[in-house]
Amino acid sequence: MSRCYQQLTLVDRRRLHHLVERKVPINEMARQLGRHRSTIYREIRRNTFHDRELPEYSGYFSAVADDIAKERRRRLRKLRRNSHLRSMVIEKLEAYWSPEQIAGRLLADGLSLVRICAETIYRFIYGKEDYGLGLYRYLPEARRKRRPRASRKPRNSVFPASHRISQRSDFIGNRSRFGHWEGDLLIFERELGHANVTSLVERKSRYTVMIKNQSRHSRPIMDKIIGTFSPLPAFARQSFTFDRGTEFAGFRALEDGIGARSWFCDPSAPWQKGAVENANKRIRGFMPGDTDLAAVSQRDLTHLARHLNDQPRKCLGYKTPAEVFMAHLQEEG
């Protein structure tokens, strides 16, 4: 049996039709056709004709099966048949838009008469015909193959019970009010020095802020946050939710400096600050763990944050975080 997979031809399907008529076992069909049994099973399951009104006419017929298979391939290859749509998708991928963002924005703006979903774009990226384009490099995690997401190992330390996330008001959790943030620290390879980046995301607008730090000492990190957020009105910086890393142990400085309350996730529960976790994945696409921060300025980080804030989000009705953030500042100011 060949190790190189080839599509079944009409001739193969004619032979298979006769074998099905004779009720030959699947394993024997596969042996006679020189195919894997899963290929034969899938072919029969997917390409059998079903007539609900006249069930006696249902069955596996070679010509009908061939037409069904060709039509399915045509549906799954929209981006190969429509060159204009294909070019738009590639352009947005190279601008580091996610497939979900691309599909949603195309629909929202009516830029294409052909509707596509995020899954179609993922199949285009990882399909064998277009894999050579290397478009996976522009996805948030730049994976060569599609696979389940892995979980991060959480940190643990001691923080006051009065500041646990369970004590946080419901309006923060349900994102009904503006001005509540999540924060995290992006760490890079130790050999490159102690510099790191604080990433902060406003929960309602998903607006991202990035701050460069020279060390993981808590007080300097808090001072940088205070200096960055002081120009904002008080309603835009009401609280911050962090994990239990020691770099956030100096959280009381935020209360004294800008009047912002701090909350902390439960142990082993980084998903409780999911907005900043998702933002970190996007940032890692531009700044992997081996990035030398000595060559990265605060201006570079601000430019990257602006780029992320100008990308449409499904959860915002395909508006951008920058648009939503500015609208809240103007409305509530």
Write structural notes for this entry.
The model is unreliable at 149-157 (pLDDT under 50). The protein contains 14 helices and 5 strands. Helix 3 packs across helix 4 (62-75) and helix 7 crosses helix 8. It has 3 domains: 10-75, no CATH class; 78-138, no CATH class; 161-332, Ribonuclease H-like superfamily/Ribonuclease H (Nucleotidyltransferase, domain 5, 2-Layer Sandwich). It has helices at residues 10-21, 26-33, 37-47, 62-75, 78-81, 83-94, 99-109, 118-126, 170-173, 218-229, 252-258, 274-286, 298-309, 321-332, and strands spanning 180-186, 196-202, 208-213, 239-242, 261-264. The longest helix is centred in the N-terminal third of the chain and has 14 residues, at 62-75. Strand 4 (239-242), helix 11 (252-258) and strand 5 (261-264) form a beta-alpha-beta unit. The protein has 333 residues and is α/β, with parallel strands linked by helices. The chain is elongated, with a radius of gyration of 27 Å. Strands 3-2-1-4-5 form a 5-stranded mixed sheet, with helices on both faces. Keywords: DNA recombination. This is IS30 family transposase.
